[in-house]
Amino acid sequence: MSNVEHRQSLASAVLAPARPGHGAGRTSDGSETRSAAASTRRGHTGLIAAGSFAGAIQAISPLGFWWLEPKTVYALGLTLIAAVYIGFSVADGRWKVIAAESSVAGFFVVIAAASVSGPAWLLVLGLAGHGLKDLWQHRTQFVRNTRWWPPFCATVDWVAAGILTTAILMGVPLHG
After folding, report:
1. Cα–Cα dist 162/176, whole Å
2. Three-state SS at 26
3. What is the pTM of this model?
4. Average pLDDT, integer, range 49-77
């Protein structure tokens, strides 16, 4: 197996839902058909490209809110990102999902609030942690009908976290 085939295989394993038999193009034993696997890769490529663009926009978002400290803008962005899953959970309709997603969003709101007066590394932690939550969501499909969202959102989170990490390490001031 070549390196390219191995990377594609690894990407398919990470991005595929963990529950066998769930998702289009799956056979009765839970394996993907070749056309479904290729279609999933093509679909994820577009989502990841769009997520990279959105992550870069998020990273420069403080420029659009020049009257606020950059840390405050990033904290508001983190709370907005976390709140999206509350909307998805309401659309899902199961009370346990609504309660779980609201609790998780609350956790990210606390991290965001602490980052306003605390170290900027909390923002990186929050964004990277939310990306991991997106990966978990994609693998488990805990919230129904979000198959397309987690790869996009995880990419947004990780790109923004990476750019923010670079800015912190370069000494860019994130306060007024």
Report:
1. 22
2. strand
3. 0.76
4. 95
Among 39-53, 102-116, 160-174, the minimum mean pLDDT is found in 39-53
Tokens 């659009």 sit on residue: 64
The fraction of the chain above a pLDDT of 70, given in percent, is 75
Report the candidate in 131, 149, 155, 142 with the shortest Cα–Cα distance to residue 18: 142
Biggest distance spanned by C-alpha atoms of the chain: 58
- Tell me how far apart the alpha carbons of residues 50 and 74 are, in angstroms, rounded to a whole number: 19
Distances 48 to 36, 79, 154 between C-alpha atoms, Å = 18, 21, 9
DSSP string, 66-125: TTS-HHHHHHHHHHHHHHHHHHHHHHH--HHHHHHHHHHHHHHHHHHHHHHHS-THHHHH
Answer yes or no: is pLDDT of 138 > 50: yes
Distance (Å, whole) CA 157 – CA 146 = 16
Over range 127-153, report the average pLDDT: 93
